[in-house]
Amino acid sequence: MSGIEIGFLSVGSIVLLIYSGLHVGIALSLVSFVSVALQKNSLTLAVKLLTLAAADGIADQTFAVIPLFVLMGLIMSASDVGRDAYDVGDYFLRRIRGGLGLATVGSNAVFAAVTGVSIASAAVFTRVAVPEMLRLGYNPRFAVGTVAGSSVLGMLIPPSILLIIYAILVEESIGMMFFAGIGPGILLSGVYCAGIIGMAYLMPGFVYDRTGRYAAAAAAAAGGTAEPPRNGRTIILKALPLLGLVLIVLGGIYGGIFTPTEAGAVGSAAALLLAIARRRMNLKAFWKVVRETGHITASICFLIIAATMYSRSLALAGVPAEIGEMVRTTTGEFLLVVAIYVLIVLVLGTIIDSVSIILIMVPLFLPVMQGFGADPIWFGILTVIAVEVGLLSPPMGIACFVIKGCLDDPSITLGDVFLGALPFAIMMVLVLALLTAWPHLVYINQWL
């Protein structure tokens, strides 16, 4: 077989192995190893590829940014910052129709700016926002759907782990990727808010619980305790630590005070000091956070090593160039190519995780997009949003599974979570269409 045939066969093999249940990192490594061995007829070269991928894949100092931002996000998650963000949003927006939904979106947007982890947002706001929304008469599907939809903001609004991984993979500036994520993050948040207000007026039965059954159950579960008093001074005290941390991390990066890696270290230190000051962190809790950080980082790094092997084996086989030529021969329509790419990513999002999709698809399609003159930063934002739709899509839908796992109410099924998240997934697809039609919206923050 020729190198091209082996390369395309390897792509199909990876999809088949993933569907069969094999871990994505193992599938990428195994297929890449066999592909190089067949192309060069040498096991020695394949072993060397594996060694170089492991050494070069994560040896750069830039990769230190991953565990640092993961650590910062987990510390903030353990420090009740999500609850504070929700209290602030609730204070200002409760009186608007659908106001608690708006508060959830706004709070998640703020929380995203200090964590960058969607799953953490989903877990925190399931415990914070859902009981409060049920108690005040919201439909359970709307409550869990709002949490699921707004949790994906954590992977778009910087600092975002996905933006970091994409930047490293394509050798773009992490700071530039962060900067580009602000505008689309604001745009997606705005579309969510407009959608919630629209549903509250046009589909009140979806937003509000007309039976009152869930409100009564939530109030009984709360033990009839009164809502804690909230005044302007209390809200300001809750908002200041959040705004301070955002200013330290993002202001330091954009102001040129320190690099993204240094920002992760400073942000982690500031988050730890805040957690200690609020008496939310002891040695046992800190060890748990550090251990979870290690698990997450090791998993990501293993995937990056495997993806490095995969991209090198594809390049060796000439697959990216061949796909680019096939696309240009089949169609010269850039929008059609983008639509095909987004559709593939959306389908993959139903079966595998976000990081894996980026590591598999970007090496295949980035050269094709660059052949059309596409901006790699725009392509990265488009990819992250498309990938995040998968967090809300069955059967994988990781965010929906996390929400279901964190719910105390067994009457709210996994199907309810997916149905509640459906309008938000549709809104995300709308934002994808807007960014595709008007790529300059990626840099909307430069207009503000």
TrEMBL record:
Its principal location?
A: membrane
**Keywords, ordered alphabetically:** Cell inner membrane, Cell membrane, Membrane, Transmembrane, Transmembrane helix, Transport
* The keyword Zinc-finger appears for this protein: no
Q: Where are the transmembrane segments?
A: 6-38, 50-76, 109-130, 142-168, 174-203, 239-257, 293-314, 334-366, 378-405, 417-438
Highest taxon in the source lineage: Bacteria
Q: Which InterPro entries does this UniProt record tie to the protein?
A: DctM, TRAP_DctM
User: Does Ligase show up as a keyword for this record?
Assistant: no
The TRAP C4-dicarboxylate transport system permease DctM subunit domain covers: 12-440
The membrane topology of this protein is: Multi-pass membrane protein
Q: Where in the cell is it found?
A: Cell inner membrane
What does the sequence similarity comment in the record state about its family? Belongs to the TRAP transporter large permease family.
Which PANTHER family does its entry note?
A: C4-DICARBOXYLATE TRAP TRANSPORTER LARGE PERMEASE PROTEIN DCTM, SIALIC ACID TRAP TRANSPORTER PERMEASE PROTEIN SIAT-RELATED
Role, per record: Part of the tripartite ATP-independent periplasmic (TRAP) transport system.
How it assembles, according to the record, is:
The complex comprises the extracytoplasmic solute receptor protein and the two transmembrane proteins.
Q: What is this protein called?
A: TRAP transporter large permease protein
Organism classification: Bacteria, Pseudomonadati, Pseudomonadota, Alphaproteobacteria, Hyphomicrobiales
